[in-house]
Specification:
The chain is an alpha/beta fold and 451 residues long. It folds into three domains: 146 residues, Rossmann fold (3-Layer(aba) Sandwich), CATH 3.40.50.1000; 68 residues; 221 residues, Alpha-Beta Horseshoe (Leucine-rich repeat, LRR (right-handed beta-alpha superhelix)). The protein is 25% helix and 24% strand. Strands 9, 10, 11, 13, 14, 17, 20 and 22 form an eight-stranded mixed beta sheet that branches. A six-stranded parallel beta sheet has the order 5-4-3-6-7-8, with helices on both faces. The protein has a four-stranded parallel beta sheet with strand order 24-26-28-30, with no helix packed on it.
C-alpha cells in the first residue's frame, strides 16, 4: 500500500488521540468525581487535560487538602480508579470513521499495532466494546520512562517490519518531534485536545490529516479503489458507502446530493468534484460528512446552499470564489478552515446556535458582505475570520462571545455599528485582541447594548 510516495506494509498508531479521544479520560474522571459532590470541577490547572501524565497520589493529596479535608487520600484514589474503569469499559467511543480506516488498511493486508498509556486489560475491553480488536495484531503500553521510540521499535519488530516499510500515526506534538528525529515516517493526526498549534504539528510530520476519515479516503484514492457510475452519479466505493466524484450528465438544473445511493450512504464530496461547474440549485441531504478541497471552487449559478447538520468537515478552499449569496448552517462544522473566501456575491450567513467558533480565515475577502448576525452560543472568532470584508458595516454579537482574536476584522474599513446582546459591563469581559491595531475598526465602532 502507498501513501503519496511512501510504500508501507505496517502501521503503528498511538491510539490515544488518533483513533479515539481517550486522551481526555482523566478529565472526565475528575469531572465525575466533583459532580458526585455537587460542585463543578474547579478552574484549576492541576486537573487540566493538558496535564495527562500527572502523579495521581500527589493530586489526591492536593485534592484532600484543598477541597475535601474529611476524605482519605486512598479512598480518593480508589474512587478515581473506579470511575476510570467504568468510563473505559462503557462510555468512551472511537473517533469518527476509525473503523473505516482500519478496514481500509486490512483491505490491503497492512498489519496494525497500537500503543496506549492505559492498563492493557481495560484497554482490550474498550477495543472489544468498539468491535475493533480483530483489526489489531499487537498492543503495547507506553514506556513509563517516556521513551516513545523504544515502544514503537518493539511493536514494529513484532509486526515483522522496519522503519522503511512502516508508517506511525501520532497526535501529540512532542512525540511527533521525537519520532521524526529518530527517522520514522510520521503521519500526524489532528486532535482537538492535543493540536493546540496546528502549524507546529504540520511541520513535525511527513503528512498531516484532520481525521481518520480523511486519511482513509486518501489511501483509497491513491490505491485505485473501484470507481463506478450509478444512476447519474460518478462515485468511488467506500466499504459501506460512496464518495461523490461528479455527475455523469451535468445538463441538469439541480445538483442533488442524496443521503443514499443504491441503498448505501454517500459520505463525501471529492476534491474538485464541482469546481467551475454551474447548477441553478444545490441540495445537500443529511448524512453527508465531508466536503474535500476545492470541491465547489468557483462554482456558479445557485444562490443559496444549506449545510446539513451531519457535515463534519469542509476542507481548505472548499467554496472559494463560488457564487452563493446565502449560506445556511444547520449545525456546527468542527473542521472548517479558509473555506468561504473571495465569494463575490455573499450577502448573508445564517449560523446555527451550535456554532461555537468561527475559525481561521473562514470568510475572508467577501466584499458584498454588509451585515453579520451571530447567534447566542458563539464563543470564539479566530484570527482573520473576516479579514478584508471591506463593506461590512454592522455586526450583531451575542452575549456568549468570549474572545475575538487579533485581525479577526482586519481591514473591515467601513464597520460602523456593533449591536451587542449584553450590557456594557458584560462587554468588558470579552477578550478582544488588538495587537498592531488588528481589530481597531471593531473597537472604534459604535457599540449598542441590549441593556
Amino acid at each position: 500500500m502507498k501513501l503519496y510516495d511512501k510504500e508501507f506494509k505496517y502501521a503503528v498508531f498511538d491510539f490515544d488521540g488518533t483513533l479515539a479521544n481517550t486522551v481526555c479520560i482523566w478529565q472526565d474522571v475528575f469531572d465525575e468525581y466533583f459532580v458526585r459532590r455537587k460542585i463543578s470541577l474547579p478552574d484549576d490547572n492541576s486537573y487540566d487535560e493538558e496535564h495527562i501524565d500527572f502523579d495521581l497520589p500527589v493530586l489526591a493529596k492536593y485534592t484532600r487538602k484543598k477541597y475535601f479535608p474529611n476524605e482519605k487520600e486512598e479512598d480518593i484514589l480508589k474512587e478515581w480508579q473506579s470511575i476510570f474503569e467504568n468510563i473505559m469499559s462503557s462510555q468512551k467511543d472511537l473517533r469518527l470513521f476509525s473503523i473505516d480506516l482500519l478496514e481500509t488498511l486490512l483491505t490491503y493486508d497492512v498489519k496494525v499495532a497500537v500503543i496506549t498509556k492505559y492498563d492493557l486489560n481495560l484497554f482490550k475491553t474498550f477495543l472489544k466494546r468498539n468491535n475493533i480488536i480483530d483489526y489489531i495484531s499487537f498492543i503495547a503500553e507506553k514506556d513509563k520512562t517516556g521513551d516513545i521510540c523504544c515502544v514503537f521499535d518493539s511493536l514494529i519488530n513484532k509486526l515483522g517490519g522496519s522503519k522503511e516499510d512502516t508508517i506511525v500515526v501520532e497526535a501529540e506534538l512532542e512525540n511527533l518531534k521525537t519520532l521524526m528525529a529518530d527517522g520514522y515516517f510520521v503521519v500526524g493526526m489532528s486532535n482537538y485536545l492535543l493540536t493546540k498549534n496546528r502549524k507546529q504539528h504540520e511541520k513535525n510530520c511527513n503528512h498531516f490529516f484532520n481525521e481518520p476519515l480523511e486519511l482513509s479516503f486518501i489511501l483509497r484514492e491513491q490505491n485505485h479503489l473501484e470507481e463506478t457510475e450509478i444512476d447519474n452519479y460518478k462515485v468511488r466505493r467506500f466499504i459501506d458507502g460512496y464518495e461523490l466524484l461528479g455527475l455523469v450528465n451535468e445538463n441538469v438544473d439541480t445538483l442533488y446530493v442524496p443521503k443514499l445511493i443504491n441503498g448505501k450512504m454517500l459520505y463525501r464530496i471529492a476534491r474538485e468534484a464541482f469546481k467551475e461547474k454551474a447548477f441553478d440549485k444545490v441540495i445537500l441531504e443529511e448524512g453527508l460528512i465531508y466536503i474535500d478541497v476545492e470541491a465547489f471552487d468557483n462554482f456558479k449559478g445557485a444562490k443559496e446552499i444549506v449545510f446539513p447538520k451531519s457535515l463534519h468537515e469542509i476542507s481548505t478552499y472548499g467554496f472559494i470564489g463560488s457564487s452563493f449569496e446565502r449560506i445556511v448552517f444547520k449545525g456546527y462544522i468542527p473542521i472548517c478552515l479558509s473555506c468561504f473566501g473571495g465569494m463575490p456575491n455573499l450577502k448573508e450567513i445564517v449560523f446555527s446556535p451550535d456554532f461555537k467558533c468561527i475559525s481561521f480565515r473562514l470568510f475572508w475577502l467577501n466584499s458584498s458582505l454588509e451585515e453579520l448576525k451571530f447567534v447566542e452560543g458563539l464563543e470564539l472568532i479566530e484570527t482573520q475570520a473576516f479579514n478584508k470584508c471591506e463593506n461590512l458595516k454592522v455586526i450583531y454579537l451575542p452575549k456568549s462571545i468570549k474572545r475575538i482574536q487579533d485581525n479577526a476584522f482586519y481591514r473591515c474599513y467601513n464597520l460602523e455599528k456593533v449591536y451587542y446582546n449584553g450590557s456594557k459591563e458584560d462587554r468588558e469581559k470579552i477578550s478582544i485582541d488588538n495587537e498592531d491595531d488588528g481589530n481597531i475598526k471593531l473597537l472604534e465602532a459604535e457599540w449598542i447594548y441590549a441593556k
